[in-house]
Amino acid sequence: MKAVRSITGGLLAGSAFALASAVLAAGMSASTATAQEAFTISASGWEGGAYAQPESDAFSHCGISRDITDDLTVVFSLNPRRNLNVGFLRPSWDMAEGQEADVTLDIDGSLSREIGALPASPNLLIVPLGRDAELVDALKRGLNLNAMIEHPDIDSESIEVPLTGTMVGISGLEECIDTALEMGIAEESAPAEPQEVPAADPAAPMDRQTLAELLRAAGFEEIRFAPDEQIPDDELNLSHVWQVGPVVGGLHQVPRTGPGVEIESFGDDYVEVLASRCPGALETEASEIHIFDNQYALRYDLVECTADEGAAYVALLFTLDDYHYSAFFHEGDPEARSVAEEATLRIDQVIRSLAGFDSAERVDDDAPVEGDETFGGGEVDGGDESETQ
User: Fold this and answer.
1) Pairing of strands 281-292, 247-255
2) In sequence order, what DSSP letters do the residues of 75-125 get, joined into one string?
3) pTM exceeds 0.70, yes or no
């Protein structure tokens, strides 16, 4: 069976959501697209290049990453101000936001640095190296990096990182930044002083910055947003669209108009929209509905559309908060099914954590509970390199 581009566009009636290949590609600015195509770094397992800011098309940084083990990815990133960071990503970590870690870096027993570091997400620790020329040179020329990490949530851990390929990899980051500055798509000046901004209206729909923070908290490191003008105005009624690896995500929101909990009808109505666009057979796996404090709710659905052209798959999370009914989804072809499901479950986990939902009433007690077992489990496959600024 041939895989299709999109369950919500490529396979479903019309071309409203061919975002993975069309909208996202067309929406990126010419300068950013050029950077992503031209700045490719590959050296002894270190892979990366130039990256855009998740909230916009603007150039962000150059980065490389390498999987050291099945449970550890190491990242180097360099920003236009020439500040170097090293990051350690381990899916099994669960670090509290704002809780500093003490990190001791040792290169071949000949150079050592003690540096404070803060988690960028529960499973990603970023260590700022700054513009330490001696340290950078040692990272390029060294054989082995030992990182001793002390954090209350992970106790102490010693990480060994072979430095094979870092001479080419880190030099590639420097050349990447040089090229970005020469092209005028990056600025070396220091960041502007922070300015006070009005408090966000909690009743307003979720903006892109807030959504990006939510997705990063869920472990997404490389997110490509479609520009607003490229999002189709159709029955899907999407406010945001993004791509993470092989899957496309979307967000649909409507205001909450009363105290009642209508998550079942909200979810049913949106699944019906998908059904109306499916030219073949639509299958929906058992839904789960959870009610919290008799006023908030979560519901998880798995939907597959099969037609002559192939099959496409969507994992949906419906939520109800004080102000909105929301539908988050990730879609992909059959090969990306597990990625779409895991990505959506990660958002579920973050929302539960932020809201303090540790337990809930299950409305459909007969539904399978296998989804509960996978909340937050494992790294999102296909999310590309886990880069950070």
Assistant:
1) unpaired
2) EEEE-TT--EEEEEE-TT--PPTT--EEEEEEETTTEEEEEEEEEEETTEE
3) no
Contacts of 264 (CB under 8 A, 6+ apart): 289, 299, 363
What residues contact residue 13 under an 8 Å CB cut-off, 6+ apart? 276, 277, 278, 279
Q: Are strands 324-332 and 296-307 parallel, antiparallel or unpaired?
A: unpaired
The Cα-based distances of 114 to 77, 148, 166, 335 in angstroms read 19, 9, 21, 44
**Per-residue pLDDT tens for 330-353?**
998 888 888 889 999 999 988 888
| Most confident segment among 17-26, 250-259, 288-297 | 250-259
Q: DSSP code of 194?
A: P
Find, among 230, 386, 251, the residue nearest to 330 by Cα.
251
CATH homologous superfamily for the domain 208-373: Mog1/PsbP, alpha/beta/alpha sandwich (3.40.1000.10)
Q: Where are the domains of the chain?
A: 70-164, 208-373
* Intrachain domains 70-164 and 208-373 with the same fold: no
Q: Which H/E stretch holds residue 2?
A: none
Which CATH class for the 70-164 domain?
mainly beta
CA 375 to chain centre: 15
